[in-house]
Amino acid sequence: MSDDRPDTSGDLAIRDPPRVLVPVEVLEGQTIPQTLVEFLAPAELVLLGYHVIPEQTPTEQASMQFEERARAAVDDIAAAVGDAHTDVETRVAFTHDEDRTIDRVADEVDATAVLLPNPAGDISEILVPLRGIVDVGRLADLVATLVDGDDKRVTLWDLTVDESTALLDQSERTLRDRGLTDEQIRTESDDVEFPTRAIVDRTDEFDIVVMGEGKQTLLTTVLGDTSERIAEGAVAPVLVVRRDRSEDGETDG
Amino acid sequence: MSGSNHTNRAGESPETVATPTNTDDETTTTEEGSELERSIGLVGGLSVGIGTMIGAGIFVFPGIAAGEAGPAAAGSFAIGAVVALLVALPASELATAMPKSGGGYYFVSRALGALPGAVVGLSVWLGLVFATAFYLVGFGNYAAAVLLEAGVGLGGASVVVPLALVFGVLLTGLNLFGTENAATLQNYVVGLLLTILVLFLTYGGLDALGVVGQPSTPESFLPFGPLPMFTTAALVFTSYLGFAQVATIAGDIKDPGRNLPLAMVGSVLTVGLLYIVTIFVATSAFGSAQLATFGETAMVEVARSFFGVPGAVLILLAGLLATISSANASILSTSRAVFAVSKDAIIPKFASRMNLKYGTPHVALAMAGGPILVLTASGEVAILAEVASFLHLVMYGLICVALLAIRRDEPGWYDPEFRVPAATFVAVVGALASFVMIAFMQPISRRVGAAIMIASGVWYKYYASDVSLKGAL
Question: One of this protein's Pfam families, by short name (chain A) (predicted)?
Answer without folding.
Answer: Usp
